[in-house]
Amino acid sequence: KLNPVNYITYDLLNKTNIFEANYSSKQKEDFINYMHTKTKDLIGEPDVLNHLFMSLYANPVVNKLK
User: Fold this and answer.
1) Which of 35, 44, 55, 61 could form a disulfide with 10 if both were Cys (CB 3.0 to 4.6 A apart)?
2) Residue 66 has what pLDDT?
3) pLDDT one-digit tens code per residue, 11-46
4) How many angstroms separate the Cα of 46 from the Cα of each of 19, 38, 43, 50, 59?
């Protein structure tokens, strides 16, 4: 079963909003804050770290679309 966070990350990674009916703007904002909290102390390029972090959550949607 896919959760709102899966759809949020898919939309963020793909710069789309095709799944926005599956989550609220508050859930999206909360996830972005959560992601920044979890990745802020990691060493590396922030954009790369965020991409990797979101990919973990978005992959179930990618797999379902296949």
Assistant:
1) 61
2) 93
3) 999 999 999 999 999 999 999 999 999 998 999 999
4) 25, 11, 8, 6, 20
Q: pTM (2 decimals)? A: 0.91
For residue 53, CA distances in Å to 21, 36 come to: 22, 10
- DSSP, residue by residue, the chain: ---HHHHHHHHHHHT--TTGGGS-HHHHHHHHHHHHHHHTTSSS-HHHHHHHHHHHHHHHHHHHH-
